[in-house]
UniProtKB/TrEMBL annotation:
Pfam families: Acetyltransf_3 (PF13302). The lineage of its organism: Bacteria, Bacillati, Actinomycetota, Actinomycetes, Propionibacteriales. This is GNAT family protein. GO terms for molecular function: transferase activity. Its EC number is 2.-.-.-. It comes from the Bacteria. It is an enzyme of class 2 (transferase). Keywords: Transferase. Residues 14-164 form the N-acetyltransferase domain. The keyword Transferase applies.
Amino acid sequence: MTEWPVQLTHGEAVLRPMRRRDQRDWDEVRSYNRDWLHPWEATMPPGGEPGPATFGALVKLLDRQARQGQGLPWALCWNPAGGDPGRARLVGQVTVTGISRGSARFAQIGYWIDRRLAGRGLVPLGVALATDFCFRDLRLHRMEVAIRPENGNSLRVVQKLGFRYEGLRPRYLHINGDWRDHEVFALNAEEVPEGMLARWQASRTPR
């Protein structure tokens, strides 16, 4: 079982559980970014069960899944002043799903961010923090990211972090109303013995 709640902080990025009182910020960010995010949003295939009907129900579902060790549904928050992490503003999500134990010990990671803050390095930083937690604290062996080939912004995140390209999975996930091809990137724990955060920081240090 995953110990939950879990909060991770470094620099301007804070990963923390979603809260019911986040609804106003969530609604504002999702509304502002509706057109920007819509092409990449997961959708329910025909015959699937509908998702939570309210924000409160969504938070309850995510919290239950986290406490059962099925995932790590973090809100990505921006803390520009480096002050109290509790005052950081919700600007996206970094979510670990499909946690597998036993002989596999892997999981998948996904992310999105408010386009007004894209390009600041918050998503790579958040993904690095989440990956380090999964490798170090959960003792997972493999982290995987699936991205639509057309999603250049998401592809740049895994390229910056050095995820290894593994190939194309045709019609892999139901996105924006249909089954879509995805390119798959992955890392094994032994490929980053220094940790993802250290790798990310080193890549940003002028040589």
